[in-house]
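Let us begin with a simple case.
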Amino acid sequence: MKYVIDSMVFLGSALMVYNIVCFVRFGRFVRGRKSWDRGDMILLVPTVLLVFFLAGYLFIGLFGKPDIIMAGILFGGSIFVFVMGRMLSDIVRRLTENEHLEAELLAVEEGERAKTSFLASISHEMRTPMNVILGMDTLALKNPDLSPQTRDQLEKIGYSAVHLKGLIDNLLDLQEMEAGTLIIRKEPFSMREALEQVDAVISVMCREKGLAYETSFAAGVMRHYSGDSAQLKRVLINLLDNAVKFTDAPGRVRFTVDLEKEEDTCTELRFTVSDTGIGIDEEFLPKLFLPFVQEDSSFTNRYGGTGTGLAAAHRMVTGMGGRIEAASKKGEGSTFVVILPFMPLPEEDQPEPEHGDEKEDGQLILSGCRILIVEDLAENAEIVSDLLELEGAVSVRAENGLAGVELFRKSAPYEYDAILMDLRMPVMDGLEAAERIRAMQRPDAGSVPIIALTANAYESDIRNSLNAGMNEHLSKPIDADRLYAELNKWIHTARRE
């Protein structure tokens, strides 16, 4: 029995030594935390008490005559402190793991912020010179005295610049979809107009490459719907651009639109893009919609591309509540099918055509209009001014937001029919300038159309523009036809008010 009692006392003592070491480590951990700044002495209290307990254990074991009850109490005390120590160790471990997770999360968030900032900056910096290239190209093509060779060269310059713009847009869309900030709009639009715009772009591409281009649009789809026409056109152009890119002459690209399912509240449309191009290996099909992934890197040298078009199309289709499927055979071609839901608009809810959208008897669209251009870069302002002049408008330029506010303040009421506003400018940006104009106490401050014309192309930029009181947000490079259409629409809307 004495051997059992002595074993319990000395094992309890040894366990108490281990407990003291654990509490010392715990105290060091707590003192090392940034939130711990005072009261270090309180961390020593448990350790000092445990040292006294240890001394008592040893004294009783060496000089006392403990019985089985006292030995059990001493050993049980050590076990209790040991359990408490393990609990503290577990707390330390979990706190450390949480700190590491928080640090990793902060690092990821910081990386995402840096990536977003970089993409926004590089997009703005690339769109600005592209605006000059496309703007000058558009103006040059207006010259009726161009030789056929020069006109052909200018058209190819424009096509290449538009293609580069599409690559930038795909990168931005992927970034916004990853961040969950891409907004799918539900606005009235004409399916006929959307398909005609897509058809106009792709027919030129096929003609340039020597491909046969076939289209078939079911009569029942040509109506007005509620949905995001801009994203729809982006999806279709991405798919058709891929078809053209990977098809050699004399190949064929075919684009059809049919009714998949028709109901009063929801109509599903089936968009089919097929080609007779190089095709895709069946084993690669599961990876087809992953970003920055291509079946064969050698294709990049031959056909170009970055592996972003299909990934962006897939995510946009999913975001619009649809689905996309692909079928292909190596060397025979590919077929992509997109099924998207749209809400059909009844006849009474369909938008009426805007007055004055078309020229009549040689009349210019913006004849007699006076436009205020707020733009810090002289070359960009010159391009916009020249484009406006082609349609009969007169323009005045302000070199920054503050100068634009002052020009509008000093002008007579209704002197300006519209304002084209850049966003990134020195002295005062376009958002603040728009807010100041809207806040002015004059009859035209609330009605004058203000249209953002900027290289900032994120959905958040669009929201910021609209929240600042602007009527529309157009991104650079400038699409001359859309610029004319938006100016015409908003100017006539303001005049009717």
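The second case is a distinct protein. As before, the sequence precedes its structure tokens.
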Amino acid sequence: MADGLTRQMPHSAEAEQAVIGSMLIDPGCVGEVIGAVKPEYFYSKVNRDIYETIFSMFNYSMEIDALTVLDQMRTNGVWTEQTMDYLRQIMDITPTAANVMAYVAIIRDMALLRQIAQTGDSISAMAYEGGDAKNILEAAEKRIYDIRSDRNIRGLEPISKVLVGVYGMLTEASKRDSSIPGLSTGLRDLDSFIMGLNKSDLILIAARPGMGKSSIAMNIAQYVAKETDKTVAVFSLEMSREQLAMRLLSSESFIDNKKLQTGRLSPDEWKKVSAAAASLSKTDLRINDNPSLSVADMNAQCRRISNLGLVIIDYLQLMQSAGGKQNYASENRQQVVSDISRMLKIMAKELNVPVICLSQLSRASETRQDKRPMLSDLRESGAIEQDADIVLALYRDDYYNKESENPNLAELLVLKNRRGETGRIYLQWVPEFTTYNSVDTRHAEEEF
């Protein structure tokens, strides 16, 4: 216990002094330091006072040297009789300003360690105080998430450096035998509209219940897993992993899903099932059917996958903010769904992979004569349509009209597309295999 009482928080007095000394020796490095270090990263109060003074002077374009800093500290009331001697001492022990960013890295690491320790203490205190475990877990995840968000600050990047990265992407794309930069969905007309599944994109597939949004998502998952060496992560909050595997087997073996579930198959059909299972087993398609997952849970699991290519989530309205309450007031639930939507977009950027999230549509479309979905039909939309890079909506006329002239003909409406135009794509729905296929005789129509 005595060791715990005397233990100091992580810090490096030498690194803090070296950063301040570098800025006093060479004011030219002040801008670079200020872009990477916040005043609260300094553990020592005297060092923090000096840095805050320099920080303020820089913002007001004031000349920075030992004398001007000392004068400004007097004005700010953070000066003592020993301040001038301390500034001289710091400048004397700083060998060169050339290594200032190495000193900055040490300060940032020490500040992060302190933040983690303080957050850990806070979480521990909440646990000891008791209460609802799920609420405490939600608060703990949020605090850890806030630490991560705080560390991922990206500064202004010169266009020359950005273009180097873009050129690399173009070079990589030119080497592939594909007309699209992203992963193919297996649906050619959709690929041409959205340019495939691209890194960091949040793609929303919305539909009324029973339209087959889970089916089209699993079709895409199956295609990407088979055609690439990438890992496809599927988070199913509604269907069990066995149900999804059954659908995949039906689609892969071309055996009616209903018949497959009975197990009453002919010897030839058993061979097809065996071949389909062997083919699917060669892929790296992973399924998690835990219905209580939060975005933080998914993000943590995906970060452990070294060769991740695609993430699919089924579906948004079943997600929890971080493992907490399910019964929200309607206005609260809208805020929760908006927060989840924003976190999904951040996750897509952080993992640098496309994330497909399924979403329910409200009943608003069913009150209109034309029941085709619109962006405003997104349930608890909030920021969903703002955060998503691409919004797709499924519509089948035979769902509403049993006398439809085109049974099993589906429309995939591109309602939002940051990579191109909006429009309509026709697909063939094959219910016995729970599969969507491209239509040979009909193609995407003009923008609507």
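Residues 322-331, 441-448 have pLDDT under 50 and may be disordered. The longest helix spans residues 100-129.
Keep these points in mind for the review questions at the end of the chapter.
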